[in-house]
Amino acid sequence: MSSRRIFGAIIALVASLGLVAVATTPAEAHSRHKTGYTQVVVAPEVYELVAGAGITPAAIGGAKAFPYKNTLAARFPITGYSVSKLRIKHSGGISLTAGSATISLKRFNIDLGRLRVSGKVSGTVGDVGRVDLFKIRLSDRRGLGLVRLTLTDTAAGALNATFGVDAFSAGDTFGYATPRPFSRF
Fold this sequence. Notes:
The protein is of the alpha+beta class. The chain has one domain. It is built from 4 helices and 11 strands. Strand 4 and strand 5 form a beta hairpin. The longest helix is centred in the N-terminal third of the chain and has 15 residues. Keywords: Signal.
């Protein structure tokens, strides 16, 4: 991806977050309360794959999940941000379960400086800790979200290992995200 397109993606995401409006506040502004949410919509192809494999998603820790345009959407509360670090913190998460196999992804951080989304991972694979789960890319389906989330090698490997499949690969689109910092959760 060209640096111009990456810069455009950062500008679009920053503008959607309203961080441009708060740029006149102190350089290290942090929110201490829920200040909106980020909605993540699972790519319809991924949702079909997950449902077909008998993997059940569920919102955890205060997140909300619901049907959306023939797929699944989840909302994760925004709990803070750092303008100087270009980072947005979230609470809640999602678990994926099939039989006795489970993986939980929670406490997501959007890092605009690195164009990554990290989260805490635990489950059948053990307590992995915080890892990069997704790379942020330009959306190819704006009706589902402002940016596209592609799997990192670590995330794809954890999903494949947990569920005994080889369906997930680094670079695959997992879903779409739209931060809504000033919306009601």
